[in-house]
Design a protein that fits this description.
The complex is a heterodimer of chains A (502) and B (556). Chain A is α/β, with parallel strands linked by helices. In chain A, 57% of the residues lie in helices and 15% in strands. Chain A has helices at residues 2-35, 38-59, 67-92, 96-125, 131-160, 162-184, 192-216, 219-224, 264-276, 294-299, 315-323, 325-331, 347-353, 371-374, 379-388, 406-418, 462-469, 489-499, and strands at 228-234, 239-245, 248-253, 256-260, 284-289, 307-311, 340-343, 358-364, 389-398, 422-430, 434-442. In chain A, the strands form two sheets. In chain A, strands 7-6-5-8-9-11-10 form a seven-stranded mixed β-sheet. In chain A, strands 1-2-3-4 form a four-stranded antiparallel β-sheet. The radius of gyration of chain A is 29 Å and the shape is elongated. The termini of chain A are far apart. Chain B folds into three domains: 5-60 and 390-500, Alpha-Beta Complex (Polyamine Oxidase, Chain A, domain 2), CATH 3.90.660; 71-122 and 310-387 and 503-553, FAD/NAD(P)-binding domain, CATH 3.50.50.60; 136-303, Orthogonal Bundle (Guanine Nucleotide Dissociation Inhibitor, domain 1), CATH 1.10.405. Chain B is built from 16 helices and 21 strands. In chain B, the strands form five sheets. Chain B has an eight-stranded mixed β-sheet with strand order 1-20-16-19-18-17-9-10. In chain B, a hairpin with a 5-residue loop joins β14 and β15. The chains are: A alpha/beta (502), B alpha/beta (556). The A-B interface holds A 236-237, 313, 346, 348-349, 352, 370-373, 375, 378-381, 484-488, 491 and B 168-169, 171-176, 297-298, 302, 410, 433-438. The complex binds flavin-adenine dinucleotide. The site of flavin-adenine dinucleotide has 38 residues of chain B, from α3, β6, β13, α11 and β16.
């Protein structure tokens, strides 16, 4: 009996140590996912965690009686706090200011609790081993646990369970220790029934969390994304997912890649500069779609720009790109600029009501993959857009891939022409997307190709622009119908062309 | 109405009342009313999440006319040159035409608190929606009266190569129609998915036939099938088709594919509220062969629709005659005075008082089953009222917070399931340019054609809200498993006499023609039941025809 108990307590040391390290790893990983800059995040988190553990160890001397029952309660608490920590962090991630406070508080609390564990366990075992034996045994198991944690965490837990489920699982292990200790020492502790019940209840709560973790970050979803999902949210309009791998952030809307932070500059430079550089007197710009603020970032590089109006349907999207630090770094806080006015409205209705004129317009909608979005590529929409374009102005439209979906691309061109626009189609290569197409539309044929560009461009030059305007044979213009509200041919072409690729 | 003064003294079991009471009892005991409830999903499960009511045309007015309740004495008399009774499309169109021609001394009386009749619409915080008529097709190009009106209200925005350009916000947005058939939603309503080659051949044969009829002209040089219906050829080789049922005709043509028959049945239910055995072959073919409209910017026969359906057109017509319309005013009798002027007995629904209008002439833009009760002694029409048959309809406007996904084609404007009692639902939000969020209103149409109209009508009046849900929800669940949970609100609407249906030998038989004839050149008639098919275009022309007869009196 006694022997069995000893083994049990030593196993507890092992489990407790493993769990402790995993909490630390979870906090560090979460912080570097969500806040970026992994070296700083990891070292400050580890520092804070170790320091809190120290505080825990120091407090342990104030526990005098009923050490076993204290230990059991402690385990339950560690399980609950640690188990739910990543859920809490994911949920509060959006509001960045409080996020750090909550992150470090959770790290602190977990650290203090974990710091209490080993000293208390040592005191429980104190009378059963000789001191040197005790120290050697405890630290052996402690370090083996740490080793195990550091191996299974990146290799098994994160890839198969994800952060949220891992936390719950580790929490369950902690409470499991509490339960086993509770049962084994039934006779030595007071209020065993109470402790046992609370352990069981906590265990169940954590199990529920484990099962429903999918609501927070979908397990199947995380399988479909190659990189780690660091943010996901369903707004009334779409599902926003942000992933991170190394330094690279990727944004997905309804599963479609919107940008990848390592090559988005190619897309946004191509979208904005061929048009805006040709308009030295442009003052007022309209951006429709593009709630990520990346096109706005490019636009704000021109000192002549006085105002940018951004119309994006989804408050969830613009809100995210106005508040998250990693994303603010990416869009250079463009949406917070005093020149920028963000309007969360449906572009079609907004355009129908708005009477202002714009010198430059960027139409950066998601691809026409369904009938709802398809409306924003119709002759009716372009007719409205035309009324919003100041004379001499330029409108540019992202128009899908002329290589993969030539019919779709040229349908946008045909549709623009059908309402009286002159068009200037062009394309470039964006590695994440492949060969991508844009169309500039003007009311009169006045477009003068820019010969110089602002300093600091990473992609666009006079020479690259010449290449962009040239359409090789495999992307050459094809005859298409006009896309209208009552035929939506574009959606059908788009579906045909992309389904043969995917 | 405080106190219902006119109820006092009324014998509640007067002749007609007793009859309907007995019929009601019979219906309940034979279980017709519960037809459909047998498929109850889970017994005793009320649809907890669903709120709503049953509404319909003003029932009190019906009582007054049908049960001949005694009314208070008239409080006064006034004169008007021309009186129009009923503000459905035909009444509004008559009024508009009079005004256009400068004839301004007229009043238009409507018993409801709104104009539009069967083209009435509703609205909630999700969308406007139709309660009856929900679309028209682009106009036949020769129909200049109609194209002028459509241009006037912005439905036609101009002309290109002599073809009308239709307002692209009113042309039905794509995708237009889908059919749930053999477990999958296919695009379009003509069955395709899962048909074998014989079925496909028959479908093709039918449409080849229709193409011929579309362009066919009679020996008088007129189109065999035209809109308005009275422009059609008098050639008896076509009119003979009115003397057989559509079912018989299809049989004669050896068209027996169950898929084709389903489709043709569906179309007849959709347009006439009855199946192919009840309507004439001429009328059945008219549905397919009378529309030849061409547009510069849309396909032939393209659909025009609005969230509130034809309620939109109603508003346009109403705006043209504002100032002439009196609502909640019901006509309960029409007779002549000694001077040969028409005397209309008027009941004010709000105040409960009656008065008299003496008119030089009156346009009755009301259905004949109403006229039968309004026209009193001295007004002679030689016709058989019993030849006018009306299909009852049940309409449900269903507010859902989402639509469960299904296999195949996604949500369209018109959504139909093969071989179900209803004719499906239309998406009221189809014409929205916004990226719609999940909430929608779906307008579900059920023609009550499984029993004689009289029986079906009475059964409809007797059903409770839950019983309607028991009829509707299993079908919706079949179309969209899991939808019940998503339903928030269902507004039910019953049209007891929804629309005239063109029974065998009705359109070219003697009664329709007789009913169109004016009485004493002072009483004129305009209603879609005088066309025999109930569509906007017919109502529009019925109104103009009667208005022209009135104008002729004044030499205009
Ligand atoms: C369910 C349903 C769906 C339909 N869908 C379509 C469609 O999609 N497209 C289409 O073109 N057509 C459709 N129709 C046909 C529609 O009936 C006609 O298009 C048209 O609206 C009929 O107009 P009306 O003037 O002939 O008759 P009604 O609409 O019947 O007008 C008669 C008017 O007279 C009033 N009235 C009656 N008695 C009195 C009285 N005693 N005193 C004063 N006023 C009185 C009534 O309240 C009513 O307003 C549909 C009909 C129904 C029932």
């Amino acid at each position: 009996m006694n022997k069995k108990l000893h083994a049990l307590l030593l196993i507890s040391v092992f489990v407790v140590a493993t769990c402790g390290l995993i909490y630390e790893l979870i906090a560090g990983t979460l912080a570097s996912y969500l806040l970026g800059d992994s070296v700083t995040q990891f070292s400050t988190i580890i520092g804070a965690y170790l320091f809190s553990m120290g505080i825990g160890s120091w407090i342990s001397k104030y526990f005098e009686k009923n050490i076993i029952s204290w230990f059991i309660q402690l385990e339950i608490l560690v399980g609950l706090v640690g188990g739910t920590s990543s859920t809490i962090l994911f949920l509060v991630f959006e509001s960045v200011a409080s996020f750090r406070i909550i992150l470090y508080s959770l790290v602190g609390i977990t650290g203090v609790l974990v710091g209490l564990e080993i000293p208390l366990l040592m005191r429980i075992l104190r009378d059963r081993y000789e001191f040197k034996d005790l120290v050697s045994k405890i630290f052996t198991f402690d370090y083996i646990g740490a080793l195990l944690a550091s191996i299974v965490f990146p290799l098994l837990l994160i890839p198969y369970l994800g952060l949220v489920k891992t936390s719950y699982m580790v929490g369950i292990l902690n409470v499991g220790v509490a339960l086993i200790v509770c049962i084994s020492f039934k006779k030595e502790i007071k209020a065993a029934v109470y402790l046992q019940t609370s352990a069981i209840l906590s265990m169940m709560a954590l199990l529920v969390g484990f099962v429903y973790a999918g609501v927070i970050t979908n397990f199947s979803e995380s399988l479909t994304y190659a990189d780690t999902i660091i943010y996901s949210k369903s707004t009334p309009y779409q599902r926003i997912i942000l992933t991170k791998k190394g330094k690279v952030l990727r944004l997905f809307l309804n599963g479609n890649l919107q940008f990848s932070s390592d090559d988005e500059y190619r897309y946004h430079e191509a979208l904005v500069h061929p048009g805006l550089q040709a308009l030295p007197n442009a003052h007022n710009v309209l951006v429709m779609g593009g709630g990520d603020g990346l096109a706005v970032r490019e636009i704000l590089k021109y000192p002549n720009i006085q105002s940018v109006t951004l119309v994006d349907l989804d408050k969830g999207m613009t809100g995210l790109f106005k508040s998250n630090r990693m994303l603010l770094n990416l869009n250079k806080s463009s949406l917070l600029s005093p020149k920028v006015k963000v309007i969360n409205a449906d572009a079609f209705s907004w355009l129908r009501q708005d009477k202002k004129k714009f010198d430059f317009m960027v139409i950066d909608f998601p691809d026409p993959s369904n009938y709802s979005v398809g409306k924003l590529y119709t002759n009716s929409f372009y007719k409205l857009a035309k009324t919003a374009l100041a004379s001499g102005g330029i409108m540019v439209i992202q128009a899908t891939s002329p290589y993969v979906a030539p019919k779709s691309f040229w349908t946008v061109d045909t549709t623009l022409r059908s309402v009286g626009f002159h068009t200037i189609p062009y394309h470039n290569n964006v590695p994440s997307f492949g060969e991508w197409g844009y169309i500039m539309a003007t009311e009169s044929l006045v477009y003068k190709k820019p010969t110089t560009f602002l300093p600091g461009m990473r992609f666009i030059t006079k020479e690259s622009l010449d290449l962009m305007f040239y359409f090789p044979k495999d992307m050459a213009k094809v005859k298409t119908e006009v896309n209208k509200l009552n035929n939506q041919v574009l959606v059908k072409y788009f579906e045909d062309e992309w389904s043969s690729v995917l | 109405m405080n106190g219902h003064p006119f109820y006092k003294g009324a014998n509640l079991l007067s002749g007609s009342n007793r009859r309907s009471f007995l019929l009601k009892a019979g219906i309940i005991t034979t279980g017709i009313m519960l037809n459909g409830c047998l498929r109850k999903l889970k017994p005793n499960t009320p649809y907890k999440n669903i709120t709503g009511t049953i509404k319909g045309p003003n029932a009190k007015a019906g009582h007054i006319l049908r049960d001949k309740l005694s009314l208070p004495v008239s409080t006064g008399t006034r004169q008007v040159k021309t009186l129009i009774i009923g503000s459905g499309i035909s009444g509004l169109s008559a009024a508009r035409y009079l005004k256009m021609q400068g004839h301004l001394d007229f009043e238009l009386l409507e018993l409801e608190d709104h104009v539009g009749g069967n083209a009435h619409s509703g609205k909630n915080n999700v969308s406007a929606y139709p309660l009856g008529a929900h679309y028209i097709t682009i106009a036949n190009n020769e129909d200049t009266l109609l194209t002028d009106f459509l241009q006037h209200c912005g439905v036609i925005t101009g002309f290109e190569n002599n073809l009308p350009v239709y307002n692209e916000y009113y042309l039905c947005f794509d995708p237009e129609e889908r059919l749930l058939i053999n477990g999958q939603w296919q695009e379009g309503l003509v069955p395709e998915f899962g048909l074998n080659s014989t079925d496909k051949f028959e479908v093709k044969k039918f449409f080849t036939l229709i193409e011929q009829f579309k362009m066919a002209k009679g020996n008088d040089g007129k189109y065999a099938f035209d809109i308005p219906i009275d422009n059609s050829s008098a050639d008896d080789s076509f009119r003979a088709l009115d003397r057989i049922s559509f079912k018989t005709y299809l049989n004669q043509q050896k068209l027996t594919s169950k898929y084709l028959l389903w489709y043709v049945n569906y179309c007849c239910k959709d347009d006439y509220g009855q199946k192919i055995d009840k309507i004439s072959a001429w009328a059945g073919l008219h549905y397919f062969a009378s529309r030849r409209g061409k547009a510069a910017n849309a396909d032939a026969n393209a659909v025009l629709t609005w969230p509130e359906g034809n309620g939109w057109l109603t508003k346009k017509l109403e705006a043209d005659v504002s100032g002439h319309v009196l609502k909640k005013i019901m006509c309960y009798s029409i007779s002549y005075n000694q001077q040969g002027k028409v005397v209309a007995g008027i009941y004010n629904i709000t105040s409960g008082t009656t008065s008299t209008i003496v008119a030089d002439n009156v346009i009755m833009a009301t259905p004949q089953f109403i006229n039968q009760r309004l026209l009193k002694e001295g007004v002679t029409r030689i016709m058989d009222y019993s030849s006018f048959n009306y299909s009852p309809w049940f309409i449900a406007n269903i507010t859902v917070n989402h639509l469960p996904q299904a296999k195949g084609m996604g949500l369209c404007w018109d959504n139909v399931a093969y071989d179900t009692p209803s004719v499906g639902y239309v998406n009221a939000g189809q014409q929205t340019i916004n990226m719609v969020d999940e909430k929608r209103v779906l307008t579900w149409y059920l023609p009550l054609c499984d029993h004689e109209p009289r029986v079906a009508r009475l059964a409809a009046y007797t059903r409770t809200y839950e019983q309607w849900m028991d009829i509707m929800i299993p079908e919706l669940e079949y179309m969209h498993p899991g939808i019940t949970e998503a339903i928030e609100h269902v507004e039910c609407w019953i049209w007891g006499h929804g629309m005239i249906y063109p029974a065998v030998n009705y359109i070219w038989g003697p009664n329709r023609d007789a009913a169109k004839q004016p009485v004493n050149n002072t009483l004129f008639f305009a209603h879609t039941d005088l066309s025999g098919i109930s569509i906007f275009e017919e109502a529009f022309h019925q109104g103009i025809r009667a208005a022209k007869q009135v104008l002729a009196i004044y030499g205009k």
